[in-house]
Design goal:
Length: 343
């Protein structure tokens, strides 16, 4: 039997001498080779739907940095598109979608089982990667969590405060709940097919979980994650799941236990020492270097990286950033970070 991969060992609860490491958005615009392949594909969405080129950009950061994990190159907004929403990206601004703000908009969407034709190329990318990745590298598949995906579908774009989604939730709870149920079911089908195609770990991105307070957090972040994880665990018992309820603050405590996640990813607004005490006691944590360090570099990057490694050294830990690496980051700083972790 082959040695278990480092990332899988951490996810199984093992405390390792040096943590495995990867970065959110590791395939992205800070890399010149990514920009070249994206130009070859034409645009971002054409790149997502081209299995050869999507696999190529997934592999680029692995070749450059030998990360312990590769994350499938795709986007959380491909699921709404497969459900029938229009989706396009405006350069310099971000995603745009046709909106869902009424029962009649909702009625036009497809069912959770009707997504696979459209998402076929994504499963093909996973298949290529599971053959081409180095044997020690773990392949991570992912989807957005229902609340985060719903915020984009309702507003038709990214919003600073998710106000349109909060408004629909308050004023037409029936339609909002129906959308959440459809996204929960669709996410299960989407992630399950990624696992069938060869994804070894699945990650659920709830980037806007922090804007849900009180009971809303339980109803719309915790409960859907619990449903998704329970169903995936019954279909794929050996596939660990990482949950990322970004900016959950105190609600990170107990999140893994409540939802059945094998690991929680921490954003950089929480202190590593605090999280080591209150969150890591339940199992593996991932995070949580501020992405700005990858732009600024220097001694603060080295000091902060070492501080995080040390804070989490008493338990299972996957080193990562607290959010995605930005286009302004210096690719050389990734080597500086890796040297500080791996020595
Ligand atoms: C909210 C969200 C989205 N997408 C995603 C999230 C959740 C994580 C987070 O909070 O960032 C997740 C995502 N998006 C992308 C990945 C691929 C894997 C990876 O390397 O992490 C992953 C895991 C590629 C991408 N997704 C996007 C890019 C940049 C597109 C480009 O090349 O022009 C990449 C590499 C575009 C995107 N996609 C999305 C937005 C808001 C934007 C525009 C903002 C931006 O440009 O960074 C939706």
């Amino acid at each position: 039997m082959a040695e278990p991969k480092k990332l899988m060992r951490a996810l199984a609860g093992e405390t390792l001498e040096t943590p495995p490491v990867w970065m959110m958005r590791q395939a992205g615009r800070y890399l010149p080779e990514y920009r070249a392949t994206r130009a070859q594909a034409g645009d971002f969405l054409s790149l997502c739907y081209n299995p050869e080129l999507a696999a190529e950009v997934t592999l680029q950061p692995i070749r450059r940095y030998n990360f312990d994990a590769a994350i499938l190159f795709a986007d959380i907004l491909l699921l709404p598109q497969a459900l029938g929403a229009d989706l396009w990206f405006v350069t310099g601004e971000g995603p745009r979608l046709s909106t869902v703000t009424s029962a009649s908009d909702f009625a036009k969407l497809k069912g959770a089982d009707d997504i696979h034709d459209r998402l076929g190329p994504i499963y093909e990318t996973v298949g290529i990667l599971s053959k081409e990745l180095p044997s020690e590298t773990t392949l991570i598949g992912f989807a957005g969590a229902p609340w985060t995906v719903a915020t984009y579908m309702i507003a038709g774009k990214g919003t600073p405060d998710q106000a349109p989604a909060h408004k629909l939730k308050a004023e037409d709870t029936k339609t909002f709940d129906a959308l959440m149920d459809l996204l929960t079911a669709g996410t299960i089908e989407y992630l399950s097919k990624q696992a069938d195609a060869g994804a070894e770990v699945l990650k659920l991105f709830d980037s806007w979980a922090g804007s849900l307070s009180g009971d809303d957090f339980d109803k719309y972040a915790l409960t859907p994650a619990k449903r998704i994880i329970a169903e995936l665990k019954s279909r794929h018992p050996d596939v660990p799941i990482i949950a990322f309820p970004r900016e959950a603050g105190e609600k990170y405590i107990g999140f893994a236990k409540e939802t059945g996640a094998d690991c929680v990813a921490l954003d950089n607004s929480v202190q590593a020492d605090w999280a080591a005490g209150y969150v890591q006691r339940d199992g593996c944590v991932q995070g949580n270097l501020a992405p700005t360090h990858m732009v600024e570099g220097g001694q603060p990057l080295i000091d902060e990286t070492k501080r995080i490694v040390k804070a989490f050294s008493g338990g299972p830990h996957i080193f990562n950033l607290g959010h995605g690496i930005t286009p302004e980051a210096d690719p050389e700083n990734v080597h500086v970070m890796l040297e500080a972790i791996r020595g």
